[in-house]
Amino acid sequence: MTHDSQPAADSNSAAINSADWNAEHYRSRHAFVFQSSADLASAWLEPQAGERILDVGCGTGELTRRIAESGAEVVGVDASPDMIAAARAGSSLAGLTFEVVDAHALAYPDEFDAVFSNAALHWMKPLDTVFAQVADALKPGGRLVLEMGGAGNMQTVIDAVNHATATLGLPELPHPWVFPTTAQLATLLESAGLRVGRTHWFARPTPLKGEDGFRAWLEGFGGAWLAPLNDADREAVLAEAEAYARPKLWTGTEWMADYRRLRAVAVKGT
Ligand code: BEZ
Q: In the chain, N or C: fewer CB atoms in 10 Å?
């Protein structure tokens, strides 16, 4: 989607196939996802001992574990059984549990003091359903603390794939993510009964490890996006997209992805 399209109304609910996730690939090639947002789990969330906290889209559970170290009781949920298996295989901690749950069907009425989410919500169309579920899961006065891709996130990669399909005479492939503007996110949150207290959109140029970093990113995260292509077309699109992106994202020594982040804190009305 483009920056100004409306996330909730986007009917391309290309729900990621949770079986597509490869936890090992994610953890080894994309550790920046949890490393760069550590302060979200500490300074933004400020977890307190004794609180009950839900981590939505917890992935392999690194930040979930960090939150639980505060003494809070933490439940990490993710739609991918592979991610939850990897999270459970990590070191155990009192008060830390992981469950395979789709965020569109949380079913934890009034249970949590806080809901946390990092780098997961942009996969979850339609977002209005997810925020309604989050609001339901929060106790009155409970807080949602989130980071997701914001408007303009990975725009050069999106442009590169669109350029590649057009150049090769292939149909355009709509990407599966939602990257809202601050105003769009605020509208979604307020519509779910969550009062927005703080938002922050910012650029986070992000190195993608290795000469093959651009491809590795697309292979790690773009599986659902490129799935309509046969093997030969997929290879051609990857090569063409990489050539298009090189002058924009290759610094001479590494790939630098144009990540754009959007953070928010919102409180369930009493
Ligand atoms: C992100 O964290 O911004 C992101 C990750 C995978 C796909 C798209 C965006």
A: C
Q: How far apart are CA 87 and CA 65, in angstroms?
A: 9
Determine whether the shortest distance from the Cβ of 177 to ligand 1 is under 6 A: yes
- Which residue CA neighbors atom 7 of ligand 1 most closely? 221
The alpha carbon of 3 and the centre of ligand 1 are apart by a number of angstroms equal to 15
Percent of the chain topping pLDDT 90: 84
**Interatomic CA distance for residues 31 and 2, integer angstroms:** 27
DSSP of the chain = --TTS-TTT--------GGG--HHHHHHH-THHHHTTHHIIIIIT---TT-EEEEET-TT-HHHHHHHTTT-EEEEEES-HHHHHHHHHS---TTEEEEE--GGG---TT-EEEEEEES-GGG-SSHHHHHHHHHHHEEEEEEEEEEEE-TTTTHHHHHHHHHHHHHTTPPP---S-----HHHHHHHHHHTTEEEEEEEEEEEEEEE-STTHHHHHHHHH-HHHHTTS-HHHHHHHHHHHHHHHHHHHB-SSSEEEEEEEEEEEEEE--
Could you tell me if the CB of 221 is within 6 A of ligand 1?
yes
Residue from 151, 144, 138, 131 nearest 1 by CA: 151
Q: Residue 119 Cα, ligand 1 centroid: separation in angstroms?
A: 6
Beta bridge partners of 97: 75
> What pTM was computed for the model?
0.89
The per-residue pLDDT for range 224-268, each reduced to its tens digit, is: 999 999 999 999 999 999 999 999 999 999 999 999 999 999 999
